[in-house]
Amino acid sequence: MLEPAPQTPNYLLRPFSPSLPSVSPPPTSVMPPPPPPPSLTRIYSDKLLSLLSEKSTFRMSSEFDSDSRVFFQRISCKLFDNLARLKLSFINNHKREILEPQLMITSKYFSIHYDPEEHNALLRTSFDVGSTLHFSVAHHVKAQQGEVSMYADLPHPGYGIQLSSTVPSAGLPKATVRFPVGEVTLEEREHEDAPRTMSMRGILRGQVLNGATLASLEMLYYIASEHIDG
After folding, report:
1. Which range of residues forms the domain containing residue 107?
2. Within-domain flag for 9
3. CB 50 within 8 Å of CB 32
4. Domain-embedded: residue 158
5. Cα separation of 173 and 165, whole Å?
6. pLDDT digit string, tens, across residues 166-214
7. How far apart are CA 111 and CA 138, in angstroms?
8. Does the pTM of the predicted model rise above 0.90?
9. How confident is the model at residue 136 (pLDDT cuts 50, 70, 90)?
10. Where is this region: Disordered (predicted)?
11. Any idea what the Cα angle at residue 193 is, between residues 191 and 195, rounded to 5°?
């Protein structure tokens, strides 16, 4: 009986061997560390620079006086997104010297007027309380004197009362009543004939023959000091 001949192996074909697919491990990547947070000083400085640079206008004007042969120079610049304005004024003579410099910083509620030659500053502030009361305060730094003023709107349009007093106080406050055609002021003044004098001044405005007229009246009331002191 014949036996089958052994098959010759085919070396061109790769022998099949069932095996599980190999899974390569994921590549390990090293993440860079996060950048450090900016400091508060840098944040505030960047905001300050942005406020100074954004929407800032710079203006300069020059006027020449032929009689005195001097130049009047004015420089202004808006700061902090139009919240404040810086103003500088001075005079240039024929020798190109800077005379009478004045520096001002103004805003809606506060202003500073500085005189470098006198080393003096005038501080002003104003604010409203409600819709009828208006307050303003002025202070001279060098003289250590100031003034406080209050203005009240009356219910009728065009009418109001203003009270103002010096600081430190030197007497009774000055009172002014305003109305559409004028005003009346009552204040205490010094007079050579009487130690204390009450002065009343009135101003009337009107039109006569299609023209503007202005009339003023002043009366003095002499009051003895013992009557005032009680």
Report:
1. 56-118
2. no
3. no
4. yes
5. 5
6. 888 877 889 999 988 888 898 887 766 666 778 888 888 776 666 666 6
7. 10
8. no
9. very high
10. 1-37
11. 60
